[in-house]
What we know:
alpha/beta; D-Maltodextrin-Binding Protein, domain 2; Alpha-Beta Plaits; EC 4.2.1.51; aromatic amino acid biosynthesis
Amino acid sequence: MKKKIAIQGAEGSNHHKVARDFYGDNVNLQECLSFDTLVNSLLDKTSDKGIMAIENTIAGSIIPNYALIDANNLHISGEEYLNIHHHLMALPGQQIEDIKEVCSHPMALLQCKEFFKKHPHIKLVEDVDTAEVAKRISKNKLEGVAAIAPKLAADIFGLEVIEDEIQTMKANSTRFVIIQTEKPNNGIDQINKASLKFQLDHKRGSLAAILNVLSDCKMNLTKIQSLPVIETPWKYSFFVDVTFDDYKDYEKAVAIIKIMASEFKVLGAYKNGRK
């Protein structure tokens, strides 16, 4: 039976590529035009698992997604890193001179800003999703309009790539997490990374003390992100990613931090996606 996998965006998007890389082609894709819709599809059991972008090497953390995972008590069961490649595509037979308008997600437009400075005749229009634009161009036979999307979208929708690799920064990578409503059953021998959330009292040295515990327990801190606690002004939740070699070291760190911090939660313990 095919797994029902929710993605943000349409078929042909980077989320779709991650779904294919992580699960293969044996998936029933659930397209969601927003991350809120994606989460709701998990909560109402329309989808089994979801794929959510969480941070990018250029744009940084996608902070609202941390809050969505936390507020809805979702679990991270895995992760995938994807090198982002932006390609300009349109109906077959068109050249860059024929393009009058490019529609794409604001982040894609931002990441290709320098390319479009060389083509001032092109109007840039913000849209909801990169692959959705490619689909619309194909379906409505829109001449003079181009999309910025992965090559996967060109293959699916029969478009032609006019310009390859138009992103300004070539070393552009996004981290995606696999999320689900149930606690994952990852084997201990496979687990070498964890995502944790906790709150601390507003007093000097409280965060430093936690960081010292992580260091003493041989945890490698790969990410720390703070979010304000809405109902308590000037109080913050901390979201931390750690990697480790020995699961027993991780268990020890968790046991100590549970005592030191409040609102402690393990968002997920899983296999490090970095190759």
